[in-house]
Amino acid sequence: MLLKKHQQFAGLLQKHGQEIGKVVDFNPAKDRLFPFDFTASNTALSAETVADTNTFSDYVTSTLQQNHCRYGIGGYFEHRTLYARSTHFNTSDEARRLHLGIDIWAEAGTPVYASFTGKIHSYADNDHFGDYGPTIILEHNFYGLTFFALYGHLNREALKGLYPGKLIQKNEEIARFGTSEENGSWPPHLHYQLMFDMEGNEGDYPGVCKLSEKEKYLQNTPDPNLILRFPVQR
Question: Where in this chain does the record put each M23ase beta-sheet core domain (predicted)?
Fold first, then answer.
């Protein structure tokens, strides 16, 4: 059933691509994306760098600046060693290391938008080291197919005035990238993730899973780049 949803979703987005709004202000004619690699193969990124939020933030910022990129991008089903920085991703049997969304890295205060008209499903301040921090989940119905979009690592101010069911318009600014002090102690970025089924969760949904759970989460979390439509960077 979920596999059919994947096919239906991809088909609808391809057919009605002109109706997809933006998630961030990205102009493919002039904005460059840096493809971050947070797997073990990135030997330039040490465990010590990742463990300290300020040092990690300096790494992200300097990498973007040196490569003349407005945004960094990456992460969909990437097996990341960096989650060892927080016990939030550790479990007794198997650590969670597989990233389920796409991260967009940029400076704090970067505007975030709803890519479709929809409504607030839920929201929360997941205020733990390594967690999402302020999080908004939107519910969309696109030509009869319901899906959910999770926006994580936002600014705390964005949660004010929200309530479940509140209507949100396409391309409406819903938040901004949070600072490290409010976004779960990460370099400023947006975690953008799609789900077909919230599985009873509110204000939260796993953004990282165990490698052994890959197939399960592949079924429920389609590729966010179907909406972002960022070009492949080399």
Answer: 98-196
pLDDT tens string 150-191 = 999 999 999 999 999 999 999 999 999 999 999 999 999 999
Whole-angstrom distance, CA of residue 128 vs CA of residue 183: 9
For the chain, the domains span 2-12+27-228
111-113 and 118-126 beta bridge pairing:
unpaired
- What does the alpha-carbon distance between residue 191 and residue 73 come to, in Å, rounded to a whole number? 10
DSSP symbols for 80-133: -GGGGG-GGG--SS----EE-SEEEE--TT-EEE-SSSEEEEEEEEE-STTS-E
Q: Give CA–CA dist 159/61, Å, rounded.
A: 26
Cα angle 68, 70, 72 (rounded to 5 degrees) comes to 100
The pTM of the full predicted model, rounded to 2 decimals, is 0.93
Phi first, then psi: give them for residue 143, nearest 5 degrees. Answer: 55, 45
Closest CA to 105 of 184, 182, 178: 178
Please provide the CATH number assigned to the domain covering 2-12+27-228: 2.70.70.10
Cβ–Cβ < 8 Å for 109, 42 = no
